[in-house]
What does this fold into?
Amino acid sequence: MAEVSPSRAVALAVVSRARRRDAYARELLRAAPEMARLSLKARGLASRLVLGSTACRGLLDAVLDSHLRRPRDLEPRVRDALRVACFEVMYLETSPEVSVFQGVELVRTVARRASGLANAVLRKVVSCDRPRVRSARERVTAALAGGVPVSVADVSLVAGMPSWLAVRLCASLPAPQAAAMALAQLEPAPAWVAANTGVCDAAQAYTRLRESGTAPVPVALPGSFLLEKPAALARSGLVGSVDVVVSDLGSQMVSRIGAPAPGTALLEVGQGRATKTILLENAAAALGGPAKVVAVDLSESKVELARERVSHGWEASVTSMAWDARLLDGPGLPRELDRSFDTVFCDVPCSGTGTMRRHPEISWALDPSALDADNPDGLPALQGRILEAASRRVAPGGTLVYATCSVLDEEGPAVVDRFLDSPAGRGFRREDCGRAPGVAAAPVPFQGMVRRWVLPSGDFASVPATDGPDGHFAARLVRRG
Ligand SMILES: C[S@@+](CC[C@H](N)C(=O)[O-])C[C@H]1O[C@@H](n2cnc3c(N)ncnc32)[C@H](O)[C@@H]1O
It folds into this structure.
């Protein structure tokens, strides 16, 4: 009898490891020694099974529980195997016979006596749930073209996300965009990288990427590439040496929207691992030379990491420090922050709903109350507070950029509207992100790519779609002189 395939066995090992260690599935997938022994095709399937079964976790559990007499009795390792198999039956194109057979074998590898139960459950998934997904997908695909509404239930089922999140998504996005996002959620996300021009120019980055087997394809922004074989990047050493930074194209667009003029002062709030610091300096350099950047983050360990990364090419122009951005308008600021800046770029903590293809844990880990504007401990309150405090550091005539990787109104336009209505915000006016100097100076096709996502308000809001960038939001506010 045929055995369970290596890709499914590896997928189960990684999913179980993530549960036991309470770790991120994508990171374990990258580090898994078993992955290196798989063929490229098998690695692709293992990766889809791990990321997909993680992204749909709650929905798969509800499906499995509906077919079990005593769901609570299911051992965690059997549930892991059934989730992987259930995801394949419902969402992938594998024939039902193969996916059920493989699912039963997978369960047998962890609990021989549970194989009969697995067979019964997976057959029910084939007859009840697989057709539901297929018909929901047809309706969502029809909504993509426009003119047809999209239902919350279909978005939730097609994307494998909780219904409350689908409700918020459909309230934030026009139907064709909600449909495009739902259809893209369980597809592999494109892999973009940008050359770190502090270390190498676009031509050198291209050569190094090509020689390392990543099959780079230049995109409309010089130094930016789509990788056709992203798996080779991990072995290339180019990420560790910071010759390139891995960054979604939407994030690269936001960095051009925030691009400081050469030699001017920029305060970056929420520096994280310094990916945008490098992109912002790339953008300034493209305009003529680096900016003088002071960057803050609440997390000491991220500041350490950021310092190491910017030391590759930008050590002379970037200062990274640990500071709580909510205190940027208070007394006792360190000398580096007690001044005004030509640009203040706020990359605030957010739900990450624009990046769920890359971070599959997000949708089932999010607490809906964290998105309520009136929750004092929620994200919109934190984002508004950071924006307000950071606005005090903008010089007259200077620019304040507010950025998130969320697609939800509550964390984007609503936060900016509230700020502009507040006493601190009254001195600012909203400007068109598509006309930002860093965008206007970029090649015309890139300008078109950015402007495609600019809303009538002037804000930038990309939305995930198959082969498209992640969901990023940016508002550009100029302080009256
Ligand atoms: C969206 S991430 C930034 C990503 C980063 N800009 C990059 O490109 O890698 C938001 C960052 O804000 C930081 N943060 C959260 N609360 C903060 C606060 N009160 N003050 C400063 N930084 C904060 C987090 O540690 C996190 O690194």
Q: What stands out?
A: The pocket of S-adenosylmethionine is lined by residues 270-273, 275-276, 296-299, 302, 324-326, 347, 349, 386 (CB under 6 Å). The mean pLDDT is 97. Residues 69 and 129 are 17 Å apart (CA to CA).
